[in-house]
What we know:
The chain folds into two domains: 2-83 and 240-272, Leucine Dehydrogenase, chain A, domain 1 (Rossmann fold), CATH 3.40.50.10860; 84-238, NAD(P)-binding Rossmann-like Domain (Rossmann fold, 3-Layer(aba) Sandwich). Helices cover 41% and strands 17% of the residues. The chain has eleven helices and ten strands. It has a six-stranded parallel sheet with strand order 7-6-5-8-9-10, sandwiched between helices. Strands 1-3-4-2 form a four-stranded mixed sheet, sandwiched between helices. A hairpin with a 2-residue loop joins strand 3 (69-73) and strand 4. Helix 5 (83-94) packs across helix 6, helix 5 crosses helix 10 (239-254) and helix 10 crosses helix 11. The longest helix is centred in the last third of the chain and has 16 residues, at 239-254.
Amino acid sequence: MHRAALQYFKLSGSYDLLDAEPERLHERVDAWLEDGYVGFNVTIPHKEAMFHRARHRTEEAERAAAANTIKSTEHGLKAHNTDICGLRKALAHHFPEINYETTTAYLLGAGGASRAALIALEQLGCRQVRVIAREPGKASATINSVTLSHPERVLALSTQAHTHIEDDGEEILLINATPIGQKSSEIPEWASALFHGLGQGKRQNKHRYFFDMVYSKTNTPTPLVSRSRELQWLATDGKDMLIHQAAAAFEFWTGNLPPFAIMESAFISALSA
């Protein structure tokens, strides 16, 4: 996508895939900077580490306490979080009918992606957010680490949340911010039970929405998207979020915002290559 954006704006440069073990991250970053890289994206599990590594941060990165986009400046590294706007734009595109003032969001996971989702959901005006993790203490720590205007609307739950969900019949949005489905088609038992529990509401299933931050690399849906559609939920994966956040990252690095269609075309071509 970034190579297509460079070509579209007639800019010289390259975008390369580089690996870094967590214990060697800072060493690798130093090497990349010495090699001439002026910016890069980071993903799980480096988002929090790079947030702390950067000397300067945008408001989005500060609020989420996590970064997925870094650029080198004359004053040091600057961290940004484009996952926030990426998720917000993708939700608006796929689920324009959601009334967030009457919606309860359930957020699976307590890592860097979850932090960005918390900020996006608050910006959208979500009535309540429930962060679900295997360890409720980790979910609480994630909630406490971000800057929220209404922290009273957010609650930490364990992965056994389906045993005590109080469904008031309003709309429900479930977001997966975990790696479930990235490397395996297996769905943990607790996740299946959660879908089942949330699907037993007082209203019709058309008021149930699922957004998977994981995206499919084939023509088949992700495992969690498949499960939600079996329950007649409206569901989508994270393809559009990836494209929107990539476009925002490119703008952060270069000052040029590439058209969505250019990035989407490059994404689809890469998958079919």
